[in-house]
Design goal:
The chain has 156 residues and is of the alpha/beta class. The protein has 5 helices and 5 strands; from the N terminus they run βββαβαβααα. It is globular, with a radius of gyration of 17 Å.
Protein backbone atom coordinates (compact mmCIF):
# COMPACT_ATOMS: atom_id res chain seq x y z
CA UNK A 1 0.00 0.00 0.00
CA UNK A 2 1.29 3.44 -0.84
CA UNK A 3 1.12 6.28 1.62
CA UNK A 4 -2.11 8.08 2.45
CA UNK A 5 -2.35 11.73 3.44
CA UNK A 6 -4.77 12.78 6.18
CA UNK A 7 -6.16 16.32 6.26
CA UNK A 8 -7.72 18.22 9.17
CA UNK A 9 -9.20 21.27 7.50
CA UNK A 10 -9.47 24.37 9.65
CA UNK A 11 -10.32 27.96 8.89
CA UNK A 12 -6.78 29.17 9.64
CA UNK A 13 -4.64 26.05 9.35
CA UNK A 14 -4.56 22.65 7.63
CA UNK A 15 -3.26 19.77 9.69
CA UNK A 16 -1.53 17.08 7.66
CA UNK A 17 -0.61 13.51 8.60
CA UNK A 18 0.81 10.65 6.55
CA UNK A 19 0.54 6.89 6.85
CA UNK A 20 3.47 4.52 6.94
CA UNK A 21 4.18 2.54 3.78
CA UNK A 22 2.18 -0.46 5.04
CA UNK A 23 -0.92 1.60 5.76
CA UNK A 24 -0.96 0.65 9.44
CA UNK A 25 -0.11 3.84 11.32
CA UNK A 26 -0.57 7.57 10.90
CA UNK A 27 2.06 10.13 11.88
CA UNK A 28 1.58 13.89 12.19
CA UNK A 29 3.40 15.59 9.31
CA UNK A 30 2.81 19.34 9.04
CA UNK A 31 0.62 22.29 9.85
CA UNK A 32 0.02 24.46 6.80
CA UNK A 33 -1.35 28.00 6.98
CA UNK A 34 -4.61 28.51 5.08
CA UNK A 35 -4.32 30.91 2.19
CA UNK A 36 -7.38 29.84 0.23
CA UNK A 37 -7.89 28.64 -3.30
CA UNK A 38 -4.98 27.35 -5.34
CA UNK A 39 -2.38 28.24 -2.72
CA UNK A 40 -3.88 25.63 -0.39
CA UNK A 41 -3.93 23.11 -3.24
CA UNK A 42 -0.27 23.84 -4.05
CA UNK A 43 0.77 23.41 -0.40
CA UNK A 44 -0.95 20.04 -0.21
CA UNK A 45 0.38 19.00 -3.62
CA UNK A 46 3.90 19.59 -2.33
CA UNK A 47 3.29 17.31 0.67
CA UNK A 48 1.73 14.68 -1.62
CA UNK A 49 4.85 14.77 -3.79
CA UNK A 50 7.26 14.75 -0.83
CA UNK A 51 5.54 11.74 0.77
CA UNK A 52 4.66 9.91 -2.46
CA UNK A 53 1.03 9.68 -1.29
CA UNK A 54 -1.51 8.21 -3.67
CA UNK A 55 -4.70 8.93 -1.71
CA UNK A 56 -6.03 11.67 0.57
CA UNK A 57 -8.45 11.43 3.49
CA UNK A 58 -10.19 14.64 4.54
CA UNK A 59 -11.88 14.97 7.92
CA UNK A 60 -15.63 15.46 7.72
CA UNK A 61 -16.98 17.50 10.63
CA UNK A 62 -20.34 16.11 11.76
CA UNK A 63 -22.46 17.47 14.59
CA UNK A 64 -23.24 15.49 17.75
CA UNK A 65 -26.13 13.75 16.01
CA UNK A 66 -24.05 12.78 12.96
CA UNK A 67 -25.54 15.43 10.69
CA UNK A 68 -23.67 17.60 8.23
CA UNK A 69 -23.69 21.36 8.69
CA UNK A 70 -21.91 24.22 6.92
CA UNK A 71 -18.43 23.03 7.97
CA UNK A 72 -19.11 19.59 6.46
CA UNK A 73 -20.24 21.19 3.21
CA UNK A 74 -16.97 23.17 3.11
CA UNK A 75 -14.98 19.98 3.76
CA UNK A 76 -16.84 18.20 0.94
CA UNK A 77 -16.15 21.09 -1.46
CA UNK A 78 -12.48 21.12 -0.43
CA UNK A 79 -12.23 17.36 -0.95
CA UNK A 80 -13.75 17.66 -4.41
CA UNK A 81 -11.32 20.47 -5.30
CA UNK A 82 -8.41 18.27 -4.13
CA UNK A 83 -9.73 15.36 -6.19
CA UNK A 84 -9.95 17.37 -9.40
CA UNK A 85 -6.82 19.48 -8.87
CA UNK A 86 -4.45 16.70 -7.78
CA UNK A 87 -6.14 13.90 -9.71
CA UNK A 88 -6.03 11.58 -6.70
CA UNK A 89 -8.68 9.57 -4.89
CA UNK A 90 -10.03 11.61 -1.97
CA UNK A 91 -12.18 10.09 0.76
CA UNK A 92 -13.96 11.61 3.72
CA UNK A 93 -13.74 10.33 7.28
CA UNK A 94 -15.75 11.41 10.32
CA UNK A 95 -13.54 13.74 12.32
CA UNK A 96 -15.84 14.09 15.33
CA UNK A 97 -13.90 15.11 18.43
CA UNK A 98 -10.49 14.60 16.77
CA UNK A 99 -9.27 18.05 17.85
CA UNK A 100 -10.57 17.48 21.39
CA UNK A 101 -8.78 14.12 21.47
CA UNK A 102 -5.59 15.73 20.18
CA UNK A 103 -5.81 18.49 22.81
CA UNK A 104 -6.28 15.87 25.54
CA UNK A 105 -3.17 14.00 24.39
CA UNK A 106 -1.11 17.19 24.30
CA UNK A 107 -2.32 18.33 27.73
CA UNK A 108 -1.48 14.90 29.15
CA UNK A 109 1.99 15.30 27.62
CA UNK A 110 2.25 18.59 29.55
CA UNK A 111 2.86 20.75 26.47
CA UNK A 112 2.54 24.48 26.90
CA UNK A 113 -0.45 26.23 25.36
CA UNK A 114 1.80 27.82 22.71
CA UNK A 115 3.34 24.47 21.77
CA UNK A 116 -0.09 22.78 21.67
CA UNK A 117 -1.29 25.42 19.21
CA UNK A 118 1.63 24.56 16.92
CA UNK A 119 0.95 20.83 16.79
CA UNK A 120 -2.75 20.24 17.53
CA UNK A 121 -3.85 20.41 13.88
CA UNK A 122 -1.36 17.86 12.59
CA UNK A 123 -2.11 15.57 15.54
CA UNK A 124 -5.85 15.85 14.79
CA UNK A 125 -5.05 14.95 11.16
CA UNK A 126 -3.17 11.86 12.41
CA UNK A 127 -6.19 10.86 14.53
CA UNK A 128 -8.51 11.22 11.52
CA UNK A 129 -6.17 9.23 9.30
CA UNK A 130 -5.70 6.52 11.93
CA UNK A 131 -9.50 6.14 12.19
CA UNK A 132 -9.66 5.71 8.43
CA UNK A 133 -6.78 3.20 8.42
CA UNK A 134 -8.33 1.22 11.29
CA UNK A 135 -11.65 0.99 9.44
CA UNK A 136 -9.99 -0.68 6.44
CA UNK A 137 -8.93 -4.32 6.30
CA UNK A 138 -5.25 -4.73 7.06
CA UNK A 139 -2.99 -5.79 4.15
CA UNK A 140 -2.73 -9.31 5.60
CA UNK A 141 -6.53 -9.59 5.98
CA UNK A 142 -6.97 -8.30 2.45
CA UNK A 143 -4.53 -10.91 1.17
CA UNK A 144 -6.36 -13.67 3.01
CA UNK A 145 -9.70 -12.47 1.59
CA UNK A 146 -8.27 -12.45 -1.93
CA UNK A 147 -6.85 -15.96 -1.42
CA UNK A 148 -10.22 -17.22 -0.16
CA UNK A 149 -11.89 -15.74 -3.25
CA UNK A 150 -9.36 -17.52 -5.48
CA UNK A 151 -9.89 -20.80 -3.58
CA UNK A 152 -13.67 -20.51 -4.06
CA UNK A 153 -13.20 -19.98 -7.80
CA UNK A 154 -10.92 -23.03 -8.00
CA UNK A 155 -13.51 -25.20 -6.19
CA UNK A 156 -16.30 -24.43 -8.69
Amino acid sequence: MARVLGIDLGSRRIGVAVSDGLGLTAQPRATLPRHGGMRDMESIAKVVKDTDADRIVVGLPLDCEGNEGPAALRARAFAEKLRTTLNLPVELCDESFSTVEAEDVLIAADLSRARRKQVVDKLAAAIILQRWLDARPSPTEKGRDEQRDEDRKDNR
